Amino acid sequence: MARRTVITGIGVVAPGGGTTKDFWDLITSGRTATRRITAFDPGAFRSQVAAECDFDPAAEGLSHRDIRRMDRATQFAVVCTRQCLEHSGLVLDDVDPARMAVSIGTAVGAATSLENEYLVLSDTGREWVVDHRYASPHLFNHFTPTTIATEVALQVGAEGPVNVVSTGCTSGMDSVGYAHQLITEGTADIAVAGATEAAISPLAVACFDALKATTPRNDDPATAARPFDRTRNGFVIAEGAAMFVLEEYEHARRRGAPIIAEITGYANRCNAYHMTGLHPEGREMAEAIAAAMRESRIGPDDVGYINAHGSGTKQNDRHETGAFKRVLGARAYDVPVSSIKSMVGHSLGAIGSIEIAACALAIENSVIPPTANLHEKDPECDLDYVPLVARDQELDTAVTVGSGFGGFQSAMVLRKWQGARR
Hints:
422 residues, alpha/beta, Peroxisomal Thiolase, Chain A, domain 1, 3-stranded mixed sheet, 13 helices, 15 strands, 18% strand, globular
């Protein structure tokens, strides 16, 4: 019998709230969590807005030693892991640790801590040769992104495959996709998987300023993220994390676990074309979607919702609109599409996992999140982007897509658990 992957636990730390419920309430209300950057003085930068998490690690149960040892992104991952374990009801003492995997996605790892440590070691850049005597004893942990996966593995006692996936802005989908493959191929029965990012720092903001990829709409941060809108002019950088307990279906059934949704298909492609450029027709994204749909054994008429990458750049919005039409044909005009980045920003490597959480919750609650700030639709983006207000709709199947610098294109299909499907 074919092995199946089900989601039995979700944990989210996102802008606008520190729990999965806070996240769901925000994205279904159409409110935005974007604001002027508070993590540092952004006055010197072209783009001065972000979607920050109001996160207190001590209040979330992390010790002073945990906080000292872990980068902010690692803290997010650990807190989300605790949340998803509690949600799933998984008892770790009953788990074979060799059959448990961990898969973490991140684009930049602990880059914020590395930046802060450089400022100390170089005396705020005054010294060309850094002085190692001022280094934190945990500096090496910040240097290696695998530390994030190690900390999560320590939390759950996982002794199976433990890895980090770093494929830019598709990292959060690819990490969950890899965990899904570990389960379906029989390598693991349980995987704690997801992604995390905490990259609101001067260096990260400067990088995207140089590319002119982020929005300069600093006068009204709440409306700065405008996917598919004619007036959009770049994305809003963000931070956050989402983690999942994934289980092989029979394993989840035997313990009576709650099944939120099933992952039935995943695929990724690369355009091998340009570091940041995209073909407007969206061929590679369309191929990723089609491959994920083939694994799921579904056709265009089965797709009930698409969670768009929806970054709010003209190139991306037109690229994925073309991809949806290419793979779904005329059916594309009947499928609701929305971008939650309009409300929680673009958290780089973490956003793919946060969007998987949004899709699973949309299926569970029969509600499609809206695209905030969509008042003047781009004529070249002529699909149903669910503007401004959430839509009540029974959902059996959702497709989520991601697009990343380097030409990465990923897609995943989530379906209502068969026992609950209409």
